[in-house]
Amino acid sequence: MNTTLSTSDALQDIAAQVRHSSQLGQRILPVGNSTKPHLSTSHDSQVQRLSMATWSGIVDYQPFEFTITAKSGTRVSELKHALEASGQFLPFDPILISQGATLGGTIAAGISGPGRLLFGGLRDFVLGVQLIDGLGHIVRGGGKVVKNAAGFDLPKMMVGSLGRLGILTEVTLKVFPKPIGYRTLKLATRSLGDALGHIGSLMRLPIDIVAVELDSDRSLFVRVAGDESTTSNLARRICDHLGMKANEEWSGAEEATWWADAAELRWAEDAVSVVRVPLTSSDVEALDRRLERVGVLRRYSAAANAAWIAARTQQQAEEIPGILTGLQLKGLVIRGTGPLLLGHDKTAAFAKRIQQAIDPANVFAPF
Fold it and tell me: Does the structural domain 266-348 have CATH classification 3.30.70.790?
């Protein structure tokens, strides 16, 4: 990890704000476009929000190197459009693009979309970062090429840091060629247990499955990629393997719209609280029984390795922390009130130690 001063006056101004806040005993929470509103708030009256939304723009794009570098306030939609022009895309499938999600906010939240199942999560694609630490220093970690992996892995540390470890100012991402096309199967299952059994069976198949979503009505949505012939053959192979027929089969615009709606959380847009819970498939049945009694909406993503919980009333929302604690699960509140993290957080003490090491002056909002 090394420090370098930027020639940008605007960047120096942000660093000066950090030093000034430290002198005044104020704390800072950097925010983007607040597409994940609960991550952009703090109950601490000493915490001042610092908008990074205007700190935007693509700094460097090397299609032949499969890397792109942009300022943290850059909207992910801008990156998406630039990459599409060269037939490339962001494999970790970022969420809330159409609502204005920024690159910095996406990294800080650490949330990947449904496509992370095949291509990997956000952490796998962050090559380098530039940030301002709690002392007002401009710090770089990682690099701008895929082979540069020397030194302390600061870039990975910033993924999921929630703006508590520093102010991200620039990020370099690895990108992939965009698939030619997609096809999605909608499969009706008899029970949650059957659905989970089908998911486990699919994950053992020697084929590339892009995404698997499980809805609360026990419908499975299975996505594959390739040209028309390839995806048709894969769809037939999946149905033969499971011994069932698809209720529906989509490609083209209808298919793309369904997955865009999933990544935009449109199924939960009227909810008063939305919580994301990392888990394993073995946790799903116990969690779902408790959530069903409360009456909340839920969806299981990435082959049941993440749960999305949407409470339609405040009373429902108040039941979620106890459910997660009882099952020793941790949830991140994307929308709602109260604590940012719910349930059983085994990493809380470690996160606080890391924050103290990177931010000894306690400039940034606490976890």
Answer: yes
